[in-house]
TrEMBL record, chains A, B:
<feature type="DNA-binding region" description="H-T-H motif">
    <location>
        <begin position="37"/>
        <end position="56"/>
    </location>
</feature>
<feature type="domain" description="HTH tetR-type">
    <location>
        <begin position="14"/>
        <end position="74"/>
    </location>
</feature>
<dbReference type="InterPro" id="IPR001647">
    <property type="entry name" value="HTH_TetR"/>
</dbReference>
<keyword id="KW-0805">Transcription regulation</keyword>
<dbReference type="Pfam" id="PF16859">
    <property type="entry name" value="TetR_C_11"/>
</dbReference>
<dbReference type="GO" id="GO:0003700">
    <property type="term" value="F:DNA-binding transcription factor activity"/>
</dbReference>
<dbReference type="InterPro" id="IPR009057">
    <property type="entry name" value="Homeodomain-like_sf"/>
</dbReference>
<dbReference type="GO" id="GO:0000976">
    <property type="term" value="F:transcription cis-regulatory region binding"/>
</dbReference>
<dbReference type="Pfam" id="PF00440">
    <property type="entry name" value="TetR_N"/>
</dbReference>
<dbReference type="InterPro" id="IPR050109">
    <property type="entry name" value="HTH-type_TetR-like_transc_reg"/>
</dbReference>
<dbReference type="InterPro" id="IPR036271">
    <property type="entry name" value="Tet_transcr_reg_TetR-rel_C_sf"/>
</dbReference>
<keyword id="KW-0238">DNA-binding</keyword>
<protein>
    <submittedName>
        <fullName>TetR/AcrR family transcriptional regulator</fullName>
    </submittedName>
</protein>
<keyword id="KW-0804">Transcription</keyword>
<dbReference type="InterPro" id="IPR011075">
    <property type="entry name" value="TetR_C"/>
</dbReference>
Length: 210, 210
């Protein structure tokens, strides 16, 4: 069955949506989250502000969705040709826990230093540091879903006998995820593949002599 | 030899300095780092702006010193009676590495959730997320000196045979320091003594079965 082309109104909406996302991200980078307004986003996107209010209840909603959309674009851009993009960066399970974790952390390094990604990510993160309500949304919609992918991979490792059964995976993942996050957020050290590989080795093997 | 009372001008300067610190911290909490100005700090402290420029070359310098001063006040307030305050929160070395690390991390938990400390800390941290130049100052003057105390304690542990000799202490400390930092910065999970104790146990013992 041949798919009919989308009607004009749908195509126009999709185009507006993309323009609004782009405008929202550009504006938050330029003036910061606090000073970005729905009016400012609308003006920059060349749409009426009612168009925005029709689709999103608040500035936070537009920006979080714009950022989610950017993440998806990023995943599509880096996916190997012919390979389907997994919706939320599923963590591979090759049976080699250390290798799988290193693989995903290297991909995260790439994303964190990508200029297109970095500026809006920083603007959103900075707002979350001072605004508890916004942080709750960032955590529940962006951060925690990503961390839960590590939880799933660590649970599989527990079942396979590659990870201690008496540990809480939700805390365990922070031993290699949080150092990278802190270096990026606070610029407290350089970020590289070698660094994240080291974190995985230290976390799995432990710092105390065996 | 009886110490002479400080001359009026010195006492007046000390009072002005304290008023300027208080004004700087209050202002950055209220309007954020970007909108806080030397003029605003001077007006709030009841001093001329030349008084501030005589002592500090920039807004960043006033705020970083005000924050360092707050940290010292905090250390004095929580020090046991009769015990001298160590200048930079030296990490104890009782010979029990896990216990010493847990002790210091519990003190950090107390500080991070103290309302007097939290608001200015968040304002400074948020600015560092988006402003690389300011972040460099925060790291070199506030964060890295604290992390180097962990490096010293971990080196002592390596010499005592309590820590693997083949690891880099500057990275190793991040396994228990950074998770707490990320939960605080991004509000990605609750902070408690039990949590930081767990981080130390996981980091030292490792996540893989022994």
């Amino acid at each position: 069955m041949v798919q009919k082309p989308a009607p004009d109104s749908t195509r126009r909406s999709e185009k507006s949506r993309r323009a609004i996302y782009d405008a929202a991200l550009a504006l938050v980078v330029e003036v910061g989250y606090a000073k970005a307004t729905i009016e400012g986003i609308a003006a920059r996107a060349g749409v009426g502000k009612q168009t925005i209010y029709r689709w999103w209840p608040s500035k936070a909603d537009v920006l979080l969705e714009a950022f989610l959309d950017l993440s998806e674009q990023y995943a599509e851009a880096v996916a190997p040709p012919g390979q389907e993009v997994q919706q939320e960066y599923g963590i591979p399970d090759t049976g080699d826990l250390a290798a799988d974790l290193k693989y995903v952390l290297r991909a995260t390094v790439d994303e964190l230093v990508d200029p297109k990604f970095e500026a809006p990510s920083r603007a959103l993160a900075a707002e979350g540091v001072v605004d508890a309500q916004f942080a709750t949304q960032v955590v529940s919609r962006l951060l925690e879903p990503q961390l839960q992918l590590y939880v799933q991979r660590l649970r599989a490792a527990q079942n396979a006998g590659d990870l201690r059964r008496d540990i809480d995976p939700r805390i365990a993942l922070e031993l290699f995820v949080s150092p990278l996050a802190q270096r990026w957020l606070q610029r407290s050290g350089p970020i590289s593949y070698e660094y994240t590989d080291t974190l995985v080795d230290y976390a799995l093997g432990g710092l105390a002599p065996r």
